[in-house]
Amino acid sequence: MAKKSHQENNDNLIAQNKKARHDYFVTDTVEAGLVLTGTEIKSVRAHRVNLKDGFAQVRNGEAWLMNVHISEYDNGTYFNQDPLRNRKLLLHKKEINKLVGALQDKGVTLIPLKMYIKHGYAKVLLGLAKGKHQYDKREAIKRREQNREIERVMKHY
Fold this sequence. Notes:
The protein is an alpha+beta fold and 157 residues long. The protein is 29% helix and 35% strand.
């Protein structure tokens, strides 16, 4: 039996950054683990995550996920962490070096696309992205509407 990839199985999908592909050209993706505390992983499993304004950076040879909101766990006490704290990403050194090289280009950033649970561990799918201009967004919307119109016409035949 073929092994399912993380993109085929959406049962464990926690959060998805839907605006990312609208606002950016995503050229490459990489999967990274997250260092979370106990109450944070409970909030993640409860789907209380917002990736919208998040981004990742490489500092001192370590990758960090920033500005991702993981809500406080309802039943947590003083163990709850700051919802917007920086979280360390677990990547191999080769992957970090590859990202550092790619991030040297002007206008390239690292954004979270999806967060999911894989084999009991929280993972985040990061995308190497370059920002779109307004005319690129309009062109994509126009192309999408044309495809819908073609599908609608073809459906009747």
